[in-house]
Amino acid sequence: MMNSIVLEERKDFILQKQEGCQGSSMRCDANSISGAVSQRACVYCGARVVLNPITDAFHIVHGPIGCASYTWDIRGSLSSGDDLYRNSFSTDLREKDVIFGGEKKLTAAIEEIAKKYHPKLIFVYATCIVGVIGDDVEAVCKSMSAKYKMRVIPVKSPGFSGNKSVGYKMACNAIMELMGPHRPEKKNGVNILGDFNLAGEVWIVKDYLKKIGIPVISTITGDSNYESLINAPAAQLNIVQCAGSSTYLATRMEEEMGIPYIKISFYGIEDTIDSLVRIAEAMKEEAARRKAVEFGEAEKAKLRNFLESYRKNLVGKKAAIYVGGGFKAISLIKQFHSLGMETVVVGTQTGKKEDYEVIESMVNENTVILDDANPAELETFIRDKGADILVGGVKERPLAYKLGIAFCDHNHERKHPLCGFEGVVNFTKEINLSLLSPVWKYIKQEVVV
Amino acid sequence: MLDYTKKETYDRNALRVNPAKTCQPVGAMYAALGVHGCMPHSHGSQGCCAFHRMFLTRHFKDPAMASSSSFTEGASVFGGGSNLKTSAKNLFDIYNPKIIAVHTTCLSETIGDDLNALIQGIDIPEGKYMVHTNTPSYKGSHITGFSNMTASFIQYLSKASGKTNRKVAILPGFVNPGDMREMKRIASVMQIPYTMLPDTSGVMDSPMTGKFELYPKGGTKVEEIKSLGDCELTLAFGKITSEMPAETLYKKCNVPFKILPLPIGIGRTDEYIMALQSLTKAEVPYELEEERGQLVDILIDIHPYTYNKKVAIFGDPDTVLSLAEFVLEMGMVPKYLVTGTPGEYFQTAAEDLFLKFGMSGCKAKASGDLYELHQWIKEEGVDLLIGGTHGKYIARAEDIPFVRAGFPIIDRYIHSYLPLVGYKGGMRLAELITGALMDRMDRDSAEEDFEMVM
Question: Where does the record place the Nitrogenase/oxidoreductase component domain (chain A) (predicted)?
Answer without folding.
Answer: 42-432
